[in-house]
Amino acid sequence: MRYAMAIDLDRCTxxxxxxxxxxxxxxxxxxxxxxxxxxxxxxxxxTPSGTFPNLSMQFLxxxxxxxxxxxCVKACPVKATYxxxxxxxxxxxxxxxxxxRYCMVACPYASVRQFNWKKPEYAIDVAMGDAAxxxxxxxxxxxxxxxxxxxxxxxxxxxxxxxxxxxxxxGDLDDPNSEVSRAIQGRSYFxxxxxxxxxxxxxxxx
Amino acid sequence: xxxxxxTKKTSATNLWMIIFAxxxxxxxxxxxxxxxxxxxxxxxxxDNMWGLYIVGFMIFTGIAAGSLLFAAVPYLFKLExxxxxxRIASYLGAVASVVAxxxxxxxxxxxxxxxxxxxxxxxxSSPMFWDFIMLASYMVISIMFTRKLILLNEGxxxxxxxxxxALVAFAAGILVTVTSFVFSxxxxxxxxxxxxxxxxxxxxxxxxALAVMMIxxxxxxxxxxxKMPIGLLAKxxxxxxxxxxxxxxxxxxxxLIGLYPGSGEDYAAFIWLVTGKGAVSFWLEMxxxxxxxxxxxxxxxxxxxxxxxxxxxxxxxxxxxIKSNLLQAQxxxxxxxxxxxxxxxxxxxxxxxxxxxxxxSIGILSLGALLLNLGFGKLxxxxxxxxxxx
Lengths: 206, 390
Fold this sequence. Notes:
The structure holds two protein chains of two kinds.
Chain A: E1 3-8, H1 17-25, E2 36-40, E3 49-51, E4 54-56, E5 58-62, H2 71-75, E6 81-83, E7 90-92, H3 102-106, E8 114-115, E9 141-142, H4 148-152, H5 158-162, E10 168-172, H6 179-184, E11 189-190, E12 202-205
Parallel strand pairs in A: 1-12
Antiparallel strand pairs in A: 1-10, 2-5, 3-4, 6-7, 8-9, 11-12
Chain B: H1 2-37, H2 52-76, H3 86-108, H4 117-120, H5 127-153, H6 160-174, H7 177-184, H8 196-223, H9 230-259, H10 265-274, H11 279-297, H12 305-331, H13 355-378
Helix pairs in contact in B: 1-13, 2-3, 2-6, 2-8, 2-12, 3-5, 3-13, 5-6, 5-7, 7-8, 8-9, 8-12, 9-11, 9-12, 11-12
Membrane topology (chain B): Multi-pass membrane protein
Subcellular location (chain B): Cell membrane
Organism (chain B): Desulfosporosinus hippei DSM 8344
């Protein structure tokens, strides 16, 4: 089994709902986003490029690419980040992370791995999201887990269920009948920084 | 009269020991503050996740390796005039440098209490784990080598019994290239991902060790601990200048190769460095490199100790800037630069270390100096009868 995600860029409107769903579901501390929506447009987020009326804007949602050949797993000196054999998900073990940030240096996909530079603080006093998530730790690196806690309950990752335009599709890449395999079939797609040889599990449909 | 002189020397040494101890304590206080408040106390961030501490680690690993080479080469290549100073070089590699390099890594990591995982859960595919092994072996080799060299000096063993260990120390010194693999093996960082980096690390290691040895020799000459002829210091200066010339060539050619295409990943990073937000630091690096080369190479018929000392200090500043600029130019220019959801510790360029980072680093340097001073006092490392009265 190899979990993968397809993101249909023609369907993404840059509403950030997946990003917010991820933040709530995983009770992410202030300033931490595992799932960020980048703008291929102007110099700032959510701004177009060009001059009116000739403007263009495209969104690029980016989270951990759960690579088949992950640079972070090779780099981590203490095996705190590893790839699950059973489904290919790249995991960050908070209890083992020494906080050296070498995985952040090694990852080509800027900012998908983030560090708790201070004790986690939250916008509200009550914990949000699923009670099954692993508590966040001070001085450790964290990132998208493909919502392993939801997968264990037979659910899909929170970003998949939340996307109003069904731009995100998830499933087992080894199963030709899975939603993700069917979504990719017949479509043109690309992987982020494919030339780096990391073999990401995120397919961007164009 | 001699007694008075020695008393003066001892009190001056004690004063320095107190100053180093005070700064080491200050460093410890800074570390305590960083541990309780978190790495938010540094000016590091999501993009520039590595800074002053990692540069300190690079430089001191280099000094350790270069010192081992300095200590081993005279025995392997029969350079008689350098042999009396190999004990100091070997001890410098063993204590000040390895301890300082290790401490720079310890203070950089968020959870130092988990550092034992390097032993129980070490990842053989990680270049950082290889570095851990390198540093540990440097410590062992340097201690053993220093001991042998002291015994040799005391006439308790013969020179041929040193050669085996000298060969090991030489090989270990050359293997400082492994340190560069932490950076040069990363496909995510094209500026570092070049075969020039291992060579640059080796050259910088030798130049930094020679510069530190020149500074130490200058101080120890004045105190009477050793009597290194000015001609020998000048030779070390010229060798350092030649090594810095190679560094200068590597830096300039890398930049020209990166800038020539006019676009792309390397171009973005190098234009940031040469004319962008990193320019001040880059041009300081150029000035420091050229100044150090001129001061160290242009000695004339009567070399001056003061100029050599100045050249050595500026050489160390140049090496710091080379490493720091290489780090920042790449970290501030990641492969994906599209604007997106802001995160804590987002780009704040250019990077200038926080006061706490500086305080902690000065603390580590002071601890290294303290250990060095202790070694000079307790061990028979010098070349004169005054050796143990430093």
